[in-house]
What does this fold into?
Amino acid sequence: MKGGLLAIVSHPDDETFGCGGTLALHAENGYPVSVLSLTCSPEERRSELIKATEALGLEEPLIFDGDRVTSDKSLVRLVSDVIVSKRPEIVITHLPFDYHSEHRLAFELVKEAIEWAAHTTTYNQPWTVERLLLMEVNTLIPTPHIIVDISDVFHKKKEAIRCYTSQLAKFSWGYYEKFNTRKAELRGTQGSCQYAEAFIEEPLAKNSPFFTNKSTRNLFKKSG
It folds into this structure.
C-alpha cells in the first residue's frame, strides 16, 4: 500500500460519515485506500462496514475486535503495526474536540502510533507518515484547512451510508442521511462545488532522534 491513504476510525460508520467521499474519490483515482476500525460492537457492524467499504470501492477493511477505544498502550502498538504494514502517505482520523469521547481518544492514540511507527528502535523497516488529516463526523470543523470536492462520488457515499442499517434505525426521521447530505452541501458551497468534505491538517513533529529522516535542504520536497 506504500504511498496510499489509511483511515483509522473508532467505530464502523465513522469512515463513511466522516470521509467516505474522499476515500472513494482517491480509490477511484487509483490510490491504495484502506480503513482500520478500532472497535466492532455489536458484531453485526462488521458486515455493515465490509458492505460500506465495498460500496466506496475500497479494499477489505481491517477490524479490531474491541468493544471500545481505550488509551491502552498495547492498542497504540497494534495501530503502529498496521501503519508500518500498510505504509500510507496520508492518515485520516478523528478531531481532538469531537463530542464523542472515543473519537477524542482515537485522535491521541493515532497521533502517538504515527510517531512510534517511524522509530528505528521499534521497527526494522519503520514508516514515516507525511500527512495527518482530521475529519468531521458529527462535530463540525469551525475553519477547515482542506475541502475535498466529492461531487463525482457522492452517490457512493450515500450508498455506503445506507449499509449501516443498525445505525440508521436509531433515528426514524433520517438524521444520518440528512445530516451527511447537508454537511456535504455546506462544504460544497464553501468549496465552489456541489458536494465536499472538510478536514483539518494536524502538524506532525519529525524531530525525534529515532526517526530515519529528520531534516531537509529544500522546503519544496519532503526530504533531501
About this structure: Strands lie at 4-9, 33-37, 62-63, 88-93, 131-135, 146-149, 196-202.
